[in-house]
Amino acid sequence: MLIITDGLPRGLGYLEIDQRNVEAPLPPGTRRHFEAETYTCSHCQYVVVMNPDRVRERYKCKGCNHHVCDDCAAERVAGKPCKTFWQQADEAMEQAQRQTASTIILP
Amino acid sequence: MARYSVSFVSKTMVAVADGASMTSNGYAVFLQGGSATMQLKVNEISVSGEDTASTPTTMAFGRDSVVGVTAITATSNFNALLDATATAPGTLAVFGSGATTNPTRSATLGHLLNPTLNTYGGIYRWQARVGEEIGIISATQPLGECSLSSVTGNGKVSGHILYELV
């Protein structure tokens, strides 16, 4: 059995910006063809483009066992509890269903 | 369930700030749940530039704080099932690029993705990691609609958004 211990996200999303056909100068430092891996923050669903030059650790939430974006990581470190997007969605759906199912007529 | 593609063809962007109402036909497309309990999962976005001169365009795909309603038009937008053998659900997602009340990009949730490219031939493509698709829930703000629009730049673009109607 292989146990992965480096803590990096795996099976990632994919981002490509292909400007090789652009017949115009690009800003200094901009690559003509950029490819990067991405993951989606489980708390707010922001898509994080993984900077290949980053050396800082990516925060993995212990509540949902998933990597989150830097903003949500800061909130977690500050003490905010883990609440995934799908938990928020479930709550919204429950609320919507309760409202449509309600037959109580208020005076 | 059913997987769909909603596309936009040769749309010229009108740049709009967060919190401001978009202009009919000045954004690529909005995608909205078709009912209070509908769930959509977006797993790919592609934008291709079609300008004939250099036009850096910063776009945003994200949630809207005001959703598109009333007299929705879908000029140069197309929505189709991806799997030819699938049966379309009874209620479909709502999409378009014009309405009496156009969408307003949320100042807090409006930048889930920032497709940025020079639309003089540039191509942008994002695919979600499996299980990490962008969710759209219900048909009202804050989670019920996402849109693809320009933050700065007036590029001419075509492209598609692939999503699943759960």
Describe the structure.
The complex is a heterodimer of chains A (107) and B (166). Chain A is of the alpha+beta class and 107 residues long. Chain A has one domain. In chain A, 23% of the residues lie in helices and 20% in strands. The longest helix of chain A is centred in the last third of the chain and has 17 residues, at 85-101. The mean pLDDT of chain A is 85. In chain B, the strands form two sheets. In chain B, strands 1, 3, 5, 9, 10 and 12 form a six-stranded antiparallel β-sheet that branches. Helix content of chain B is 0%, strand content 46%. Chain B has strands at 2-12, 29-32, 39-49, 56-66, 77-81, 94-96, 104-105, 116-118, 123-127, 134-137, 145-152, 156-165. Chain B has no helices and twelve strands. Chain B has one domain. Classes of the chains: A alpha+beta (107), B mainly beta (166). The A-B interface holds A 9, 11-19, 21-26, 38-40, 42, 44-47, 85-86, 88-89, 92-93, 96-97, 99-100 and B 36-37, 39, 49, 53-54, 109, 111-113, 116-118, 120-130, 132-135, 137-138, 143. Strand 1 (13-18) of chain A pairs antiparallel with strand 9 (123-127) of chain B.
Blueprint (SSEs and pairs):
The complex is a heterodimer of chains A (107) and B (166).
Chain A lengths: L12 E6 L14 E8 L6 E3 L10 E2 L4 E2 L2 H8 L7 H17 L6
Antiparallel strand pairs in A: 1-2, 2-3, 4-5
Chain B lengths: L1 E11 L16 E4 L6 E11 L6 E11 L10 E5 L12 E3 L7 E2 L10 E3 L4 E5 L6 E4 L7 E8 L3 E10 L1
Antiparallel strand pairs in B: 1-5, 1-12, 2-6, 2-11, 3-9, 3-10, 3-12, 4-7, 4-8, 4-11
Which features would summarize this protein structure in a list?
heterodimer; A: 107 residues; alpha+beta; 3-stranded antiparallel β-sheet; 5 strands; extended; B: 166 residues; mainly beta; 6-stranded antiparallel β-sheet; 46% strand
